[in-house]
Amino acid sequence: MACPGRRYIPLKKRILIIDDEVILASSLREGLKDLGYEVETAFSGEEGLDRVVIFQPHLVFLDLRLPATGGIQVLKEIKNIDKNIEVVMMTAYADTKTAVSAIKLGAYDYLNKPFELDQIAIMANKVLENISLRNQTFLLNEDKKRNITPIIGEHPSMLEVLRQVKILARHTDTTVLIRGETGTGKGRLALDLHYLSARRDRPFVEINCGAIPENLLESELFGFEKNAFTGAQQAKKGLLELADGGTVFLDEIGELSSDMQVKLLKFLDEKRFKRIGGLREIEVDVRVITATNSDLETAIKQRTFREDLYYRLNVVPIYLPPLRERGNDIITLAQFFFRDFSKKMGKDILDLSEEVKEVFLRYRWPGNIRELRNVAERITILYNIERVEIQHLPLEIREGFPKAEESVPLGEVHLEPGLSLETLLEEIERKYIAKALEKAGNNITRAAEMLGMSRYALQRRLEKYNMHNG
């Protein structure tokens, strides 16, 4: 149930009427417009197919008997253009058998002529509600694929984060930028912002900008028309369109290419976009939440991230602290994970020894909550125990590598004339990438995990530094 006072402006539904009876088609157009739909008409099959490409309707009312190109052929062509467009056939009683055949070819339903406007209105509402339900079911199934960890914590820094989330949940249009290291729970926080808001009964769509190549990211985000590029045999709605009324979460926003930054900025300013290969602008009502573990301010200075986009995204920033700075939250989270995995696997891990707790508090947790979760899962799988002891921990954690109070040794610092901090940082980054690749046996996926970044992000840095992986 929607919250009282929620503000949701739905994507205006588009209906196309294809009928060679001009008076009937025009009358239906005006009647459906009065009900709030965006409606266009076509008076032949050929004209109707042209309008399908340009107008991109959600629903088509199609006359079965059309001159030249008949209704059945037009139906086949519509489904070939975009299989998601719903088609309702309009037919005389004598054509009922043919109309039933049309349903087997993909038509949603049929209406017998003559009919009242109320019948058309009821059918339109039924079909369009079914489309919305289908979209939400698809996104719900995508949500189920994710492992969701609740936000747990009593550390003052986390209590402040939760305070900000409760406030921002009431402001459903405000753009939020979540910052924090890899594995700190940025996606979980974005999900909370969505489900605590008035948009909770609409879709939540997550897109990892660092895990998808640029050409695929654009098509995933904005969708594409049939024949927009090689292999585009069907039109496809983008995730922005599917998320209408809900929330779009763009993770690893710092990894966006320059071209995609421009397109995202335009969308944020106008809340409308065109599918790839499309002519029509599509307007949607979505809240945009972004997240990054990158230093966007440095990226702006290096001209790899647009300053205007930064200010457009950074309306309200939220900083998630690393796990190593959250004190006893580490133990609370560990106990939660062990209980959760024990329940799923039929085990009985009930407690952590004091020595284990001390090690957990001293360990640096470079992978943050994600690493802690993985450690708990590994131990639960490997041991039939009631209490986690020091010998059950992975070697790197038992040895305390690296410990929270330790820092990376830099040697003696020399501030010489002409020093370039930017060049120095790039050199350090090169060394860490080279070391990770060496330890991973040149396996990019494993090296990326060691460095706390996506495979795609690491590949971009290899290209930037001309470091050929081999």
UniProtKB/TrEMBL annotation:
InterPro entries of this UniProt entry? AAA+_ATPase, AAA_lid_NorR, CheY-like_superfamily, Homeodomain-like_sf, HTH_Fis, P-loop_NTPase, Sig_transdc_resp-reg_receiver, Sigma_54_int
**Sites bearing 4-aspartylphosphate, chain numbering:** 63
One MF term in the entry's GO annotations: sequence-specific DNA binding
Q: Where is the Sigma-54 factor interaction domain?
A: 151-381
Q: Which GO terms describe its biological process?
A: phosphorelay signal transduction system; regulation of DNA-templated transcription
Entries under SMART domains matching the protein: AAA, REC
Q: Cross-referenced CDD domains, in alphabetical order?
A: AAA (cd00009)
Domain Response regulatory: where?
14-128
Matching SUPFAM superfamilies: CheY-like, Homeodomain-like, P-loop containing nucleoside triphosphate hydrolases
Listed A to Z, the keywords are: ATP-binding, DNA-binding, Nucleotide-binding, Phosphoprotein, Transcription, Transcription regulation
Q: What does this protein do?
A: May play the central regulatory role in sporulation. It may be an element of the effector pathway responsible for the activation of sporulation genes in response to nutritional stress. Spo0A may act in concert with spo0H (a sigma factor) to control the expression of some genes that are critical to the sporulation process.
What name has this protein been given in UniProt? Stage 0 sporulation protein A homolog
- Organism of origin: Thermanaerosceptrum fracticalcis
